[in-house]
């Protein structure tokens, strides 16, 4: 396994595909040169965490994102692009990080494991559907429901010229514990193919992480069962999965990308919604510019609190890993939505 990866990296280097500096010591760093374990390269913190859980001691996990950086903004060095090709498994979420999508396709993609192939991703359209349909928000007082989703689209288009349509997949699937558990199973299967001697270990690990995720899911279902408000005003549309799963209503000034720039009109519209409703808190994020959320909170005269989309971990994160951040988010939601 390791030998094959090393050979592949060496061949790419010989062919001059990588910068010379990117090739020197490449195998050393990702542990794929002749050592026994399996190497996994991931693009974002949640997948790094999941791969660590499922892989255990036998799997070397390299993450492409610097700790504490916004996963949407990722750029890759030539060495990192090389490691996407040379790792035994490139574990990523198509659509989350264009740089990783590009690296996978430029490296041939034989080792690629796209989470979107393991679980069905929600789309902007699904998020729109859940606003009215699931929650009975149609019945007056929530006329902002449809405009929310338009606002998201417009904001996304305003950004850097990417066009976003309603069918665009929402990559933030790790905020759905059930989908995340299915991704763990899919990864365990792939690791078992790469390292058949330990396939049973990977399956056991996936089962353990599924149990952990089920536990968090139960805490959320119970913690958010009875709340005075179910509206969450967030910085960017990262919480569609969470909202759908626990019957919350996401209101966001920005689209699926954290760097999409909301229009002043959209901000004013949400501020008015907040002022006219029983919303007490607007949520900010630790890793991205939450200026829009702070503007809304200021205009509406309500508090802000950190609701972390778990894109990465820093000192500013409300926990030190996926489970603790998810639990901190639940406490924050419970307080802001006045759940009993
Ligand atoms: Zn995001």
From TrEMBL:
InterPro entries: Bact_metal-bind_prot9, ZnuA-like
Region (Disordered): 126-172
Name under which the protein is recorded: Zinc transport system substrate-binding protein
Molecular function GO labels: metal ion binding
Family of this protein: Belongs to the bacterial solute-binding protein 9 family.
One GO biological process term: metal ion transport
Bias-annotated ranges (Basic and acidic residues): 132-172
Key words, A-Z: Signal, Transport
Highest taxon of the lineage: Bacteria
